[in-house]
Write a structure and sequence with these properties.
Elements lengths: L1 E5 H6 L11 E4 L3 E9 L15 E3 L16 H15 L10 H8 L1 H35 L1 H9 L4 H35 L10 H27 L3 H6 L2
Parallel strand pairs: 1-3
Antiparallel strand pairs: 1-4, 2-3
Helix pairs in contact: 4-7, 6-7
Length: 239
Amino acid sequence: SGIVINEAAVRELGWTNDDAVGKTIVRSGQQELNVIGIVADFNYASVRQKVAPMMLMLGNNFGGLLIKIKTKNVKNFLSDLHEHWIAFNPAGPLEYNFLDAKFASLYASEQRTQKIFSAFTILAIIIAGLGLFGLSAFVIEQRTKEIGIRKVLGASVQQVMLMVSKEFLLLVGIAFVIAIPVTWWAMHKWLEDFAYRITISWWVFVVAGITAILIALLTVSFQAIKAAISNPVKSLRTE
């Protein structure tokens, strides 16, 4: 009988796409199968695995049917399908599943991991923002007289804001430099589990760094502006 094989099978057998058609494969040492066609490799399992050699053939025994539907009314279609199935095979129950749901189940663990990491990322940003806000308030409170003296000596609002903000931006920069290799290593190790994977681009880290700096600036800016526009006379009177 005739079979169709994929390109992975062609490579595994040491053939080429040009000479594979017409060759014979002996199955189980008895059945001879003639190659009548070649199909391109496609993923029929998780992308964690490489596409394995595969052959497609017609037979008398079948375990299921693949049906492509165009209607949007899936409920009515299933009802009609059930009626036809009962007429064809009254004794056997109709069991079905959708191909998109089956493929989605292959990556259920990755989807759960994504949701967990997203939740913890948001939580970490909130906690870090609150901590940075409290730290900036404490530092500015400790430097109240210094800020007042600088303003009396002619420091502008922009200069005071820069003085207050640059220390926190330096801390964010140091944390970012430490986080880059750790993050790259963790992502690289995770992607190693996939036979087909993307490469981690440099711009991802640039966007992450800019985002971290913007969040830090927004968090510190409130306290910095408050200190910059305050009356220096009041700050110098503060004990």
